[in-house]
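[retry 2/3] Putative MerR family Zn(II)-responsive regulator: previous attempt timed out, resubmitting with same input.
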Amino acid sequence: MNTKAPSLTIGAVARRVGVAIDTIRYYEREGLLPEPERRASGYRSYGEGAVTQLRFIRRAKDLGFTLEEIRELLALSVDRQRGVKAVKRRAEKRLAAIEQRIVELQRVRDGLAQLVASCPGHGKPEQCPILRALSDDEVAA
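[retry 2/3] Putative MerR family Zn(II)-responsive regulator: success.
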């Protein structure tokens, strides 16, 4: 019976997770993934744990977490004492930041919609309200 865990190449891991090979190497350099074992040929050799960890990183990035926050989440994911509570606090903080960003984007959208509505779409460039707003010294809030 073979008890050795299956060995995956970096390309196989990248395909399974849906990331680029360079992304995996980057996460290794950043310390988000442990250095993989090397085969006799020098090629990287990964186990299923790397696939799981990369999926975690990818999903956390999709939720807007920074690499530093992901590093913290990975550390907390094995912390039996304070892990879940601390993860929730970080997720709440990320949610608040996203909600603030939505408010900012809605303000930008409203301002741009006003400019688009006020522009006739023809005439001299110096009379275009969009170009005037972009060139104006004062920043519209």
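[retry 2/3] Putative MerR family Zn(II)-responsive regulator: The radius of gyration is 24 Å.
[retry 2/3] clearing retry counter.
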